Amino acid sequence: MTRRARVALPAVILAALGLACAAHQRYVPKGRPVPYQGFFATFPSGLRLVVYEVPQVDRFAVTVSYGSGSAADPAGKDGLAHLAEHLAFRAAPPWAQGARIWDGLLEAGFRFNAETSPDSTDFWAAGKPANLRTALALEASRMRDPLVGVTDDDFAVERDVVLAEYRERFENDPVGAQLAWLRTEAFGDHPYGRTGAGTPESLRAITLADVRAWAKAEYVPRNAIVVVIAPRSTREVTELVLDTFGPLTGDGEATRVQPVARSAPPVPPPPDDEIAPASRTAPVRQPVVWVAWRVPGDAAGEEPKAQFAAAAIDAAFSVKLVQAFGGNASEVVERFDAFYEGFGGAGLVVFRAELARAGDAGKVIDLVKSAAFEVRAEDELRDPAVTRLPYAIGNRLRANVAVSTRDRLLVKGYLAMESIDGSQVARFLRATGQPDFLAGWQRLVAGQLHGVPTDYLNEHLRREQAVALVVLPDRDAPARALGDLASVRGERRDDSEDPSVGPAPGPEEALAVARPPNLAAAERRVLANGLAVVVARRGNLPVAQVDLVVRTRAEGTPEIPPGLPALALGSNQAYFAEHDLERIGADAETRRTGEALHRVARGTSANLDVLLQSTAEWARDQTPRWFDGAHEAFTRRLARLEKDVDFAAARALAAALFPGHPYGASPSADVIGRLASGDASRWLSEEIRPERARLVVVSDQDPSPELWAAIEGHFGGWARGGRDRIPPPPPPVPAARRVLLLDRPGATQAVVLAAFRAPPRAERDEAATEAVRWLLRTRLNQKIRIEEGVSYGVAVSLLDHERGAALLARAAVDRDATVLALRTILGAVERLGAAPLQPAEAARARWQVARAYGSAFDTVDATAAALVTEATYDLPPDHWDRQPAEIAALSPERIQKAAAALALGREVILVVGDAAALRPQLEKAGYAVEAAR
Known about the structure:
- It comes from Anaeromyxobacter oryzae.
- Helix content is 41%, strand content 18%.
- By secondary structure, it is of the alpha+beta class.
- It is globular, with a radius of gyration of 28 Å.
- The N terminus is likely disordered.
């Protein structure tokens, strides 16, 4: 396609392309075509541009994807690409007068991030359409000189940040470490077998000169794809790109540079003979088995087949497990799942299972390999044990999984459009040469899964091609695995001032950005049985979500002991309701808090009736039919969790934060072990009733008489009759500050969590509290991450209950920086509550809160979440529509008042790490330390 060639890309066709499905009598086409305009060009510099004009969304997304990632790291310097990505945010262009790219993105109020994969490095930013030029200009500046203004100290700090990220993955997220080990087993010395984050040794070997050379060679136009998704015309967007990127496009040059067409490194051939499982230790709660098969990667254009293979193995394994162990299956495998992980040149079909006993690892691995063999087999097995199961292994299973996988992936196309994910577009272009992901993905899925991909399965899922990894629990594993991770930096600075940024817009601009979402206009009715219903239309993409919120009595009382709701729900697996959703590519999940039960089902609006029916069937059928198995599994799992550090940390925090209150209670194996089927049955029958519930329906459909008739037809027969719901009294605030220390022997990091009691949602100034959150997060990250480099980042969140809440500040930091982090957190909260902010600071906070609010209702899922929050906390219907005015009127005094309401001096501080090293530090700093139990 020539430069500036304008092409109207075809509409997204998400119907099944006329494919019949005898196995699915209730099959419904996924939806209607969605019109859009697209543009693709390759500029003379080799830079490629993909533009999607999507008028149905009120935001833009800019993604700049460079076709180089961790697979191209030089030998001995693993982590170089990842470190370059981090440092690119510290670039300080001369025109910015000392401000960094990071500061510019923050000042504009964008949501932004970056990711380094084996084959690419992607930078993205999202915001309101009026600010598209700013995002493009910032990315163009980054491309011109990715590390301009980066100093030796910047490099040292950010290398420590990457090192902290490595620690956090190994110590606090063992799943990430295990997956990295599995890749090593599957790919060996191949670049895909190396960890993209690097190792402590390889990170120390990297110099600033190395990173500069990498960025200069890789962050160049001929290696880049720019993806812009916005509601503005493709011509207008293209002209903006030409204007902001200027010479980077090579516009006007007589010659044309070809884009980089990098071939993925060749993957070694699969083994001829079966390989014995590898074994590792990690800080896991229980033994974990991993099994993987190498399959073709993105470049082969066969991802739908790989997704089918993972889904088929998952389904076949469930049958094999029951065949082998019958009713004792849960005593062997407690959880399992399968998924596909793809890279450019190769991918993995991965199976993972959590086991009850390490001694069963060999049996489970053999069952997984056997399941893969059955998936490849073309003849139906006639084993009598199988005929009683919902799925039979063989042709029937394969046909059902092919259709359900196809439908699920077709739905993914709609969700990709709604989330405007530019990284998927760039990945698809590199893999297939096609710029139109939205239409191309649908064709790819429908073409590859019109039947069972037998040839693909026979070629790639052979028993001898599988690699297996067994991970065994070991509390001391992190210290041995990580070794000496001391920082190489010199003295740390004490300056903790906020970064300098320009003046923020005023109240009028904030009000214009944080526009009311118009949720008060959603139609609301109450059915005769007491069920409250809210129906809202959002956008014009055929996506639907059905949420059912049931407000339950608080657990943690003698009548409702902690853990009873989870046990009761776990004993009532309504298979038929789930099965209907699987058959149309939809999904559902049940979430539970201490005072509410939340059931959510997602799919396309063409199948909205099935989503409603499935939800209604789940609500009406509350019988603990699987109580004995669920009771035994839950009791066994709790007994294991009670020895787990993370579980102990959550339990200790809750008990100290809400002393003597149901909110502070946690389940125990002893209490759960004494419960009977009647307890579960009583809770289900008394709590899950329509008069306590609210149904939320959000889709692209108007709340028509036909839709209301369908809701009445599905939910009108749901009988009322539960017990009255009485909320618990407000929980007492801790009498004084408590510092709890939980031992994780040998840990090189400390997790520092400070929890400040806050007013409940219905009583607090929500806009001012969000401003406090933003200010704390900004100040803490500036000091702990950007200046000190002792943490990957600080998270500030809210823990909400109906009658009590808390603000949580959490950071995983170098062990030696524990006191620094704690003092920084406490000092930041104290300063915010001690005096009103300077007007400029308050204006920046107001602007950031307004910008975030303006993007908070962009999708069906986000809109449904807001309506669910309204139901959970009994907020008035106009709550969300009133917030923009509240945000625009934010003052320094309101922000100070919200910070002062955080009960400073009576907070709960939880520190998790090596107690032998941490206790002396904390006590020397004057903190009275208690051992957490």
